[in-house]
Amino acid sequence: MINSDDITTSAMLNHYLIPLPAINKSSELIIMVRIQKFIFNLFQVNTYILYDETGECVIIDPGCVDEGEQAILAKYIEDQKLSPVKALFTHTHVDHIMGSQFITDRFKLKPMLHKDGLPFLERYTETALSYGVEAGKNPEYGEFIKDGDIIKFGNSRLKVLYTPGHADGSVCFVNDDDRFVLVGDVLFKQSIGRTDFPTGDFDILQKSIREKLYTLPDDYTVYPGHMSETSIGFEKSNNPFISE
Ligand SMILES: [Fe+2]
């Protein structure tokens, strides 16, 4: 049984918020998506909750693997009075989906994914066990998403980019209103996703980054699946693996 006094793990210490919505000169509220990051499981994956002024939220890459991490996620949603309306996978590597069944059981949401990621999800239990994690059954899943789809929550929208190379089924989610992109394990600050797992391919990853991510404006903030955020412009100039 978890109580609030128990919720003091590193995941609690590592989350943060982007600034509160600003007020413009005419005192009209500027709509802004708020992004809450949690760092979960032994792989230190970034799980994100995105929400706007309506209170509707999406949960991206639920990595909360045990009761403590699951309580942290659920408490945040409860404290902020959020209504989870969608769950999404950037890709289906084991670390990004460890909390998926909890999300389905607790919030009645089956995560949306690109269909090419299905083989990883179907090997979830055996893959988790290979890392010493007793993970239960393979998670349920919902609708398939594809390149160009628009995913709506509240008054906000995310555009899907298909970006394979790290793993088949990898997608990124772009928000043009607030100028950010969630990239999973495709691109990191001065690094890129590994290509030595099944379906990984450096040439394809390079093409995804150059043709899908580096064509976004330089000021777009990049929220990766591990470690800290960066920007498209910074990576174009400083990424040692794929420069402009
Ligand atoms: Fe990955």
Low-confidence spans = 1-28
CATH class: Alpha Beta
Largest beta-sheet details: 6 strands, mixed
What is the helix tally?
Answer: 7
Overall geometry:
globular
Question: SSE string, helix = H, strand = E?
Answer: HEEEHEHHHEEEEEEHEEH
Helical proportion, percent range = 10-25%
Bound molecules: fe (ii) ion
- Count of distinct structural domains: 1
| Beta strand % | 15-25%
CATH architecture: 4-Layer Sandwich
What is the fold named in CATH at topology level? Answer: Metallo-beta-lactamase, Chain A
| CA-atom Rg in angstroms | 17 Å
Order of strands in the sheet with most strands: 5-6-7-8-11-12
What's the quaternary structure here? Answer: single chain
Key structural traits:
244 residues, Metallo-beta-lactamase, Chain A, four-stranded mixed sheet, 7 helices, 23% helix, binds fe (ii) ion
Description:
This protein has 244 residues and is α+β, with helices and mostly antiparallel strands. It has one domain (4-238): Ribonuclease Z/Hydroxyacylglutathione hydrolase-like (Metallo-beta-lactamase, Chain A, 4-Layer Sandwich). Helices cover 23% and strands 23% of the residues. It has 7 helices and 12 strands. The chain has helices at 10-14, 67-79, 100-107, 118-122, 124-130, 202-213, 232-238, and strands at 34-40, 45-51, 56-60, 83-88, 150-153, 156-162, 171-175, 180-184, 187-188, 191-192, 221-224, 230-231. The protein has a 6-stranded mixed β-sheet with strand order 5-6-7-8-11-12. A 4-stranded mixed β-sheet has the order 1-2-3-4. The protein has a two-stranded antiparallel ribbon with strand order 9-10. The longest helix has 13 residues, at 67-79. The N and C termini lie far apart (51 Å). Mean pLDDT is 89; it is low at 1-28. The site of fe (ii) ion has 5 residues, from loops. Fe (ii) ion binds at residues 91, 93, 166-167, 185.
